[in-house]
Structure formats: C-alpha cells, structure tokens
Amino acid sequence: MMLIQRLLPIVALTFGIAFAAQAADTTVRVISDRTPSHLEPLFEYYRTLTGVEIESAFVDKGLIARLQSRPTEADLIITKTADILEEAKQQRLLRPFDSSTIAAELPARFRDADDAYITLSYRPRVIFASKERVEPDSIETYADLTDPEWRGRICIRSGYHNYNLSLLSQMAEDQGLPAARAFIMGLHANLARRPKGNDRAQVRAIYEGECDLSLGNSYYMPIMLANPEQRAWGKATYLIFPNQESGGSYIMRGGAALTTANRNVPAATQLLEFLVSNAGQEFIVNTTFEYPVRDDVEMLDSLRALGNRQEGIEGGRFKANFIPLDAIAAHRDAIVTILDEVDFDSDR
Ligand SMILES: [Fe+2]
Prior knowledge:
Layout: H1 2-14, H2 16-23, E1 27-32, H3 36-50, E2 53-58, H4 63-69, E3 76-79, H5 83-90, E4 94-95, H6 100-105, E5 118-130, E6 154-155, H7 162-175, H8 177-189, H9 199-207, E7 213-217, H10 220-225, H11 231-235, E8 237-240, E9 249-259, H12 265-275, H13 278-288, E10 291-292, H14 301-304, E11 320-321, H15 325-329, H16 332-342
Helix pairs in contact: 1-2, 3-13, 4-5, 7-8, 7-16, 8-16
C-alpha cells in the first residue's frame, strides 16, 4: 500500500495520458427520450453540485432500437416510458443497480423486482370532463364511461396509441381481459367521432362542444393552462381521477436504468441516486408536471389544483394503481386483437 502511494507520482508521469483519460471518467453519459429542456437544467445543477459532467444524447423516438444497436453508448437511460425498460431488461440490455440509498429511499412499487430499473415519476391517465355538461361525481370509474348515458358524448385519440394500449392493458391485468373487452366495446359505442388527434385535441373538442368527455394524461391540464392558445380548452374542463374507490387510477411511468456499459458504474449509480433525491425529484416534477416518487416533494400549485372538483382528492394527491410493467406488457397483443375486432379507429 505504502509503496504504491510513493510510486504514484512516477506512475502518473509515465502514464500521463492514461490518467487524463481517467479524469475524463468524471463524466456520465446519459441517453434519453425526454424533452432536452426538461433535463438540461437538472444536469447543470448536478454539475455545480458534484463536478460531474453529464454528456447527454436525446432521441425523440426509437430509444429501444438505439440501445439494441449501441448498448454501451450511454451509462444511464432516462425515459418517459418506463415500459421500454422492462423490454430492455428482458433483452439483457440493463445492469441491475446496487444502491443502499435507493433501497432505503424508494418504495418497492417504484423499483423493478430485480433492481434493473426504477420509476422516476408518473402521471395518471384520467378523464377530462366538461364543466358545463358533466356533473361532478357523476363518473367515478373508467367503466362508467360505457354507460348509455354518454352515448355520442366521448372523444378519444387512436385506441392503438401507446397511452391507450397501456391503459387498456392495465385494465386487463387489473380486472381481467373480459372486463377490458367490455370496456373497449362500450367506449367505442359511446364515441362522438372517429378517434383522431392527440390528447389535447380531445379537450379542445370538449371546449368546442363536439363531446363532453375524453381520456388524457393529467399533465396536459397544467400544460394547456400555461399556454395562451390552449388555456380556454383546459378551463372548459375538469379532471376526474378514476377508480379511487377501487384499485386506483391507471398510470404511465417515466424511469431510469443503468446500461451494461462498465466504464463508470459508480458515477452512473450516484446520478441515479440523485434522480430520486428530493432535489432531483423537484426538478423532474416541476418541468414535466408529473407526480414525484417521494411524498416529501413540494408540488406546484397547478398540480395541487388537479381534481379539486372531485370528492376525496386533496392537494392533487390521488390513488394510483401500480401494476408491474411486465404484467402490462403481457396483455398488449390481446388488447390489439380486441381493438381490431371492434374496428376501434374506424368512422362511425
Ligand atoms: Fe404526452
């Protein structure tokens, strides 16, 4: 030990180049499909805090394909759709993390059973209802949308969009495939128009009187309210968090994981730990309008106001249904088959 210490300066001189390369290892390479402006301030804060430089690459789509073709290009993956982390895990593209901090601070429902990935934030897929035409508390569950009372009054984006496939797969796991089938058929029967457009386009259709109800991700409400051109759409509606008396609302998760790259596992693990810390979570929640994985994170007023017309919802906090991601993935093909049978996206 002593000898090595005395030899170090000489070794450093001789192998100056190698040491310079090691100094460069105080960087962590991150690949993400999240919006760059959501993560860059967080990375900058992390650099001032730790001196660790984050090299980031952003891909809009095809993160899983990129990981397959270049599995060690990054040390850490941050994604808005944790479902792909389950896929990556099954393809052995992830390295389980080893962190007593995460084990102590992150509840099990936010960790993969084998610690291959974690949930960083989540957002429920909720009901947007017309303030003018839908009485508060007249709808309590997703299944209530199939009631004949709402015939011709519901708008939704394509049934095949990831958000809806995830929702329907969660329902299949939670309530069984026959219940999911009955929901798809009943919802289809109640549609006001052919499924088209994105989540916000459905809220706009409520504002314009074309329908009274839609399904969408919760964060679109604060996003619309912050946008002068869309504020009226948001203001015409209120959120209903479904299934609060049963298992909880279905959610979409954002997540993170280590790749199989082995150049700087400790530093990548530290960044992962930071992402679930109070400070890391505040950055994520305040830029994405999603929900934190810690209860001690201060939420913005725009989030705290969500669901304020709904009995039992306080400060925007709702009951979520944390169905394991592998269970959700297993139902996807069966859901697509039912959508095909019903011809869900066709003209009515
Ligand atoms: Fe979205």
